[in-house]
Amino acid sequence: MRLTDLLRPHLDGVTTVVDATTGGLDLEPYLHLPDGVLLTRGDQDVGESELVLMSYGPRAALHGTEADCLAVLGRMRPGGRGLLLFGHHGPELPYHRLLDALVAHHCQVLRAAPLDYVHLHAGAVFVRTDELLPPHDFFGRPVPAEGFATALRIADEYVLADLVSRSLRARLLDLERDAEDTERARGPAQADGLPERLAATVREKDQLAAALHGARERVALLEARVAMLEGSTSLRVGRALVSAARSPGSQAARLPRELYGLWRARTGAEAPGVRQLYGRWRRARTGPTPGETRRPTSATPRTAPETAGVADARPHFAHRAFLSAPRDRMVLVGVLTDTTAADLAADAVVNRALPHDGRPLVQRTDPDALVVQLSACTGHGPWALTGTGLAPDLDRRLAGLLTETRAAGRSCVLWRDGPASAAPGLTRFAWDAVLDADTGVRLANLDPATDGRRRLREAFRADSTRVRLSQLARRTGAPDPLDERRVSVLAAPRDPAERARLADQVLSQRHRPAEVVVPDPTGLDELTAAGVEVRTGEPLAPWVADWTDLTEDRPDTLLLDLMCAQEYSGADAVGSTPAADDYTFVPELTPLLVRRLLLTSGTPPESWAGQGHRLFAWCGKEPT
Length: 624
Description:
By secondary structure, the chain is α/β, with parallel strands linked by helices.
């Protein structure tokens, strides 16, 4: 929630807002006060038609101190209102330190809500009153209750909320204690360097095994070539000629008969070679026949070319893992189903491991992670029955694949998209992370006409394949695919009113942009505090939206729907057409969302389609 959204419902009858913050916060760019409400600073008493601002947080120089807040509460008069801002995160909110002072000064908290800023995380609106007032709901509307009913409601809600919060706090403490115990247990092992030495030993063992295996393959190949040469006709003919040359008297008479027998034993395709050898021997014995000219011979004998039929035993992989630039795309080696591999390949480099080539695949592709999908082990495919106890050979190969991956310093992840009981043997392997979720859905596989825009939005935000890959990236330290969803907004606000409108449109977006590029960043501190980078120059995000015209109304789902359309279509630009085409490729459009590389290329939009860029139409209206 924004600060102005928390404050606006409580400004009825307020003419002056007093900024009593003592830290380094400048709250004026956050407030967006309506006309007729004056913002001042001072330490005067706060009475009716006045509202005071104060803050309290862990950084005294920025947020102020507890003593400052207590001093402001002492100046509250009947009818005065206040907004207390906290720099603490929700679970760490020290409201108990101010609760007694609020009660002592007859201040009732009407509404409290979290704030979506970097250094302000919560806010509470209170009023100085001499009678119990009805509290407000999440939207700032008073709850219809008076007197004793209000007291009962507040008391009941306090007890029930305390019950829930106590269980959550206990759970948090247990998790923190377990994390500390695990870190202490890992400390001696990490200090001793045992994991590194074990990984180095396993890596050395695997390298020696690979070298031995390669030597055996080369020996087998050489033995096959020797056997082939010994059985070849050329070698037998050469032996016969050598024997005849050594014993011209006894062996020369038998040579024609032996050559003729070799010729009869060969196929017709190889017979010309034997006939040429026989003719060469005859010419050497009797000289050239009449009309035949002797050709000069080279002193260096020619060697026969290598046999083309000998195959290269080295495996060859088709992948895109080796790049000279920094890796910005996740690279996976996976035991995956056909459908999952095809879906993940849209956002990552996917190399599917087979039982016979998994280990060299890991060695040569340097993946970010090895992903083993449970469905690939329980369905049909080369890894079927792995982990079920019915295929121990596959279990051994998977164990070797995990060892090779861990020796390379990469993560092994079990993607458990089904019940663990389907392959109980998988739980016995050592996994670096376990992802308990389905594999998601590609937006391209949805039908906007049937599923509707709401389903597209839900899949985009929570159920898409790209979101599942992002969860995997956070566990393995790989590049996050959601970085491809970052949007830059181009704007040029000219006055405070347009700056306020720009901040309102940006912060209300359900798919918030990553940056706002403006000629002058003055007066846009609220965007920076909300985590949106404000900068000048060229946009840096992969996608760009032009919001130069700030008079245009933009719904809070604008960027969300545009990104849904882009991810559904894979287009380079998404926009509108005069004919109000919707969810279809078009030859030209008015761009609303453009790929940054296309926008900065300087190519005019009317020639985008002619150069092969894909243009996708979106009209912004829900289908009926």
